[in-house]
C-alpha cells in the first residue's frame, strides 16, 4: 500500500532424497528448477488450447505434489542463493533509502540511497539479483546479493511491486498507480506487454499450484483479479464481501501448501479471506487482528504468519485446521512486510509506522530485537532464502 496515495539446472537428487534432507534439517544445496511440463490447469476460466503446451513446458514441476513449499525447507539453498551474504534489506518509502541489517548482530551496517518511494526488495527469478522497487522514482535498483553492492537504477515505470512468471520468461511489474501489469524481460526489464486491470490499487499476488495463473489483490476497489499468466490476460474479477463498516482493502496473498486455497489479508476487514483456488469462491472470512497485512509461510509449511500492522500483533494460523492457533503480541508495534530466515527460526518484519524492524523467534513468538531504521520501512527482504526460483515480492519461492 502507498502511504501517499531459469536457466534451469538438472536436478541431481530424487524427490525422496530431497524431502529426506528437508526433514533432517541438514544443510543442502538444492538444484535449480527442472524444465518439466506441467499438467494443464483446471483453474476456472483457463483459456489454454492444445497448441499452447510449449508455452508452459518450462514451468518447473513441484518438488512435492502436496506441498508447494517443499523446496523452501531450512538448508535447501540453491547453488546461486548459497553464494549470497546473509543480510536484511529494508526499503524506506519516506526516506528513499534501504537500510542493510546484519541478522546476526541486529545492527544496521549501512544506509543506501535509492529512488523515490522504494516499496519492496524483490529477489529475481534466477536468484542472482535483488531489485529495489522505486515506485515514484520510476526505477528498479539492482543489488548483487553476493556482496550486497547496489548498482545503477534501471528505468521502469511505476514499479510498486514485482513478480515473475513461473517459467521465468517474464518479469511482471505491478504498476499500481497506472492500473496495469507490465510484462517485461526479466533481465533487461524492457517492456513486452502492458495488461490493464479492471480494478483499482492492484498490488500483491500469489500463484496457482501449476504456476499458470495468479490471484492479484486490488486494495482500493476491494477486489481480486484472476490473471492467466501464460496468455497475459484477465480472466475474472472477484468482489470481496464487506465484513466491517469499511469496504474491504485486500493486501498480501498466499497460496496454501496443497494449492487448494488462497489466503488474502484484508486491512479494513481485520483478517483473512479464504478463496477456493478452483472455483474462486470466497469460502469464509477469518478475523486475525487490526490491519491484517503480510502473509508468510513457516519453513515446515504448517503455519501462516499474519502481520496485523494496526493491531500490534502477529497471528499464527494453522494450515491443517484453517484457524488461528496463537497470537504474538508486540506492544507499540506496527508489523508490516518481511520474510522468514533461511533456517526458519526468525520472522523478520518491518514496523511501518514505528520506524523499526522486528526479529521474532517463531518457536514462541519472543521478540529478539527492535531495530531503529528510517521514517517508513516497508517491503523488507530476508536474503538468502531456500527455494529453487523466485516468483517475486519479498520472497515468494518455490
Brief descriptors of the model:
4-stranded antiparallel β-sheet; 2 domains; 31 strands; disordered N terminus; Methylamine Dehydrogenase, Chain H
Which helices and strands occur, and which strands form pairs?
Layout: H1 15-24, E1 28-30, E2 76-78, E3 87-92, E4 97-102, E5 107-113, E6 118-123, E7 130-134, E8 139-144, E9 149-150, E10 154-155, E11 161-164, E12 171-175, E13 180-184, E14 191-196, E15 202-207, E16 213-218, E17 223-228, E18 233-239, E19 250-255, E20 261-266, E21 271-276, E22 282-287, E23 292-297, E24 303-308, E25 313-318, E26 323-329, E27 335-340, E28 346-351, E29 356-361, E30 366-372, E31 381-383
Parallel strand pairs: 1-2
Antiparallel strand pairs: 3-4, 3-31, 4-5, 6-7, 7-8, 8-9, 8-10, 11-12, 12-13, 13-14, 15-16, 16-17, 17-18, 19-20, 20-21, 21-22, 23-24, 24-25, 25-26, 27-28, 28-29, 29-30
Account of the protein in words:
The protein has 398 residues and is an all-beta fold. The chain folds into two domains: 15-72, no CATH class; 76-383, YVTN repeat-like/Quinoprotein amine dehydrogenase (Methylamine Dehydrogenase, Chain H, 7 Propeller). It contains one helix and 31 strands. Strands 6, 7, 8, 9 and 10 form a five-stranded antiparallel beta sheet that branches. Strands 5-4-3-31 form a four-stranded antiparallel beta sheet, with no helix packed on it. A four-stranded antiparallel beta sheet has the order 11-12-13-14, with no helix packed on it. A hairpin with a 4-residue loop joins strand 8 and strand 9. The longest helix has 10 residues, at 15-24. It is globular. The two termini are 25 Å apart.
Amino acid at each position: 500500500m502507498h502511504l501517499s496515495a531459469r536457466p534451469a539446472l538438472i536436478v541431481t537428487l530424487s524427490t525422496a532424497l530431497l524431502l529426506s534432507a528437508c526433514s533432517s534439517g541438514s544443510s543442502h544445496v538444492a538444484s535449480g528448477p527442472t524444465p518439466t511440463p506441467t499438467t494443464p490447469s483446471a483453474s476456472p476460466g483457463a483459456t489454454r488450447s492444445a497448441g499452447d503446451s510449449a508455452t508452459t513446458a518450462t514451468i518447473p514441476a513441484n518438488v512435492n505434489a502436496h506441498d508447494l513449499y517443499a523446496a523452501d525447507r531450512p538448508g535447501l539453498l540453491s547453488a546461486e542463493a548459497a553464494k549470497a551474504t546473509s543480510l536484511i534489506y529494508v526499503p524506506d518509502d519516506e526516506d528513499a533509502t534501504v537500510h542493510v541489517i546484519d541478522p546476526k548482530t541486529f545492527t544496521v551496517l549501512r544506509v543506501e540511497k535509492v529512488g523515490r518511494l522504494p516499496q519492496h526488495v524483490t529477489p529475481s527469478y534466477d536468484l542472482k539479483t535483488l531489485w529495489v522497487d522505486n515506485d515514484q522514482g520510476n526505477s528498479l535498483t539492482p543489488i548483487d546479493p553476493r556482496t550486497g553492492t547496489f548498482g545503477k537504477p534501471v528505468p521502469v515505470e511505476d514499479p510498486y511491486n514485482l513478480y515473475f512468471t513461473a517459467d521465468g520468461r517474464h518479469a511482471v511489474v505491478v504498476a499500481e498507480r497506472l492500473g496495469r501489469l507490465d510484462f517485461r524481460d526479466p533481465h533487461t526489464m524492457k517492456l513486452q506487454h502492458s495488461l490493464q486491470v479492471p480494478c483499482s490499487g492492484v498490488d500483491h499476488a500469489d500463484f496457482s499450484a501449476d504456476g499458470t495463473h495468479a490471484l492479484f489483490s486490488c486494495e482500493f476497489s476491494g477486489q481480486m483479479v484472476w490473471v492467466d499468466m501464460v496468455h497475459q490476460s484477465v480472466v475474472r474479477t472477484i468482489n470481496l464481501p464487506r465484513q466491517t463498516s469499511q469496504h474491504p482493502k485486500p493486501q498480501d496473498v498466499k497460496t496454501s501448501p496443497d494449492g487448494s486455497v488462497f489466503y488474502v489479508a484484508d486491512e479494513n476487514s481485520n483478517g483473512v479471506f479464504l478463496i477456493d483456488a478452483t472455483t474462486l469462491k470466497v469460502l469464509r472470512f477469518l478475523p486475525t487482528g487490526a490491519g491484517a497485512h503480510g502473509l508468510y509461510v513457516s519453513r515446515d509449511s504448517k503455519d501462516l504468519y499474519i502481520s496485523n500492522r494496526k493491531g500490534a500483533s502477529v497471528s499464527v494460523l494453522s494450515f491443517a485446521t484453517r484457524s488461528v492457533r496463537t497470537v504474538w503480541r508486540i506492544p507499540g508495534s506496527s508489523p508490516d512486510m518481511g520474510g522468514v530466515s533461511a533456517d526458519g527460526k526468525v520472522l523478520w518484519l518491518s514496523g511501518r509506522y514505528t520506524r523499526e524492524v522486528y526479529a521474532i523467534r517463531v518457536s514462541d513468538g519472543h521478540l529478539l530485537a527492535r531495530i531503529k531504521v528510517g521514517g517508513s520501512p516497508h517491503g523488507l527482504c530476508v536474503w538468502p532464502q531456500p527455494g529453487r526460483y523466485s516468483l517475486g515480492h519479498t520472497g515468494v519461492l518455490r
